[in-house]
Structures are given as C-alpha cells and as structure tokens.
Design goal:
single chain; alpha+beta; 5 helices
Amino acid sequence: MPLEPKSADLPRIRGALKFYKVASVITGVMLLLLCAEMLLKYVWHLELYAFGPNGLLSFEPVIETAAGLESTGSGVNLSTGILIAHGWFYVVYLFSDFRLWSLMRWHFGRFILIALGGIIPFLSFFLEVRVAREVTAYLDRREAAEAAAASAAPEASETTPDSVEAQQ
C-alpha cells in the first residue's frame, strides 16, 4: 500500500506544486535554448556573442583545432551563459522535484521520471501539466474527504450509547 501524504503537509504541497511548475517551465525553456546553442555550435560552427565589435548581438565563427572547437568572438559569450544558466536552473528544478516528490510520498521511480524532464527536450512541459493535474486532483479529493469527515464527526458524537438505548 503506497504511503499517503500527511494532512499537515497538504498546504505545503500546494506551495511545492507552484514552485515545481515555475521551475519546470524555466528549465524547459533553458533546455530548448541550450539545444539551439548546441546546434549552432556543433552543426553550423557559430556562437552567439553580445557587446562585441560586430554589434549588440552577433554570431561569431567557431574553428576546429587540434585541441577541439575554439571560439573566435570577443565580447560576452551568450552561448556559454546559456549553458551555465541551464545548469543552475536544472539544480533548482531538481530541488523542486525532490520537494514535491517527498511531500507526496511517491516511489523513487517517479522522482527519476520527473528529473528527466530537465534533460529531455519538451518533457518538462508535458510532465508539468500532467503532474500539476494529478496533484491538484489528489489535493481536492483529499481536502473534500477531510471536510466531509470533519462535518460527520459532530453528528457521530451526538449519538452516544445512552441515546441509542433511549431510541430503542
């Protein structure tokens, strides 16, 4: 039997879900930018630079040397910036994934699946929608069940053994 989230954690789960949704979208966008940057660099041998001598934004060639690919541009290398930004946002995404996973008490395979959303293009967008829908539905069901149990509790306490004997 899978473990259920604790009742006290239900409000924290809503906050963790919001954090996960934001981190998922940002990581997905950064991953797509990273894929575009890798295509530019390794297929067309170009890198994106800002504030260089060729203007505000420019594509500069990358040359192949014995040591590997070498940049020829000057200015701020936005291609490297995209790489670094995605790496840090992926760490934030993993934290949001772990937080939601631990509060929901899912199995470990679920954590790994959601973590893959930050390294497989477009997967984070699909998972964000699916996970958000699933968690929201679970929270709504659970809160409705707890509200029904709370409203039924006073009625049950009104029926004492003495009142049951009196009714017979």
